[in-house]
Design brief:
alpha+beta, elongated, signal, TPM domain-containing protein
Length: about 180
């Protein structure tokens, strides 16, 4: 887990103004905590401390945000868009989601972070940057969510148990009755 985050932060730190070694260690720990907090608050059933970074990329780029959305009830276009340059980090990671305390799903997804404003972004905010789009296109086929083999076995075991127990009860319960 730490190795992947270190790779991400190395790319981010070398491409931005964080070239001092003392700041690099602090920034690494800070970003790890920020990412963990974001996952805990936004990803349903997130299994704590289960993230592992697959790939990461950092750059200075353009961020596009819709500040004021358009009101569909009026004919005027009230939409206001803000564009600014910022240090952007994109991370492709794998995390675990634990449901009912038994079933574990592995999920791979992208997260975008604005280091200057210290906030997470959506894909629509940053995919106007060509290099981020290339990074996204490189990994877009790897986005998935799958159940782990042990969890699948456990699910199939419980499912067969639910079907087989009533069947055995029907077969062996009525042994004492007379036959016609």
């Amino acid at each position: 887990m730490r190795k992947g985050i270190c790779c991400f932060l190395l790319a981010v730190l070398l491409s931005a103004q964080y070239l001092m070694p003392g700041k690099a260690a602090d920034s690494e720990k800070d970003f790890e905590d920020i990412l963990e907090k974001q996952l805990r608050s936004t990803v349903h059933y997130y299994n704590k401390d289960s993230l592992s970074v697959i790939d990461a990329y950092g750059m200075q780029g353009q961020v596009t945000k819709v500040v004021t959305p358009d009101d569909p009830s009026t004919s005027e276009n009230e939409e206001k868009i803000e564009e600014y340059s910022s240090h952007i980090g994109i991370v492709f990671l794998e995390l675990e989601q634990k449901r009912d305390g038994l079933y574990i799903f592995k999920k791979k997804d992208f997260f975008y972070y604005d280091f200057d404003k210290k906030e997470f972004l959506t894909a629509s905010n940053v995919l106007g940057n060509e290099s981020i789009r290339e990074f996204f296109d490189l990994h877009v086929d790897d986005i998935e969510k799958s159940i782990t083999p042990f969890s699948k076995f456990l699910f199939l075991f419980f499912l067969s148990f639910i079907i087989m127990v009533p069947l055995f009860i029907m077969i062996f319960h009525n042994r004492g009755r007379s036959k016609f």
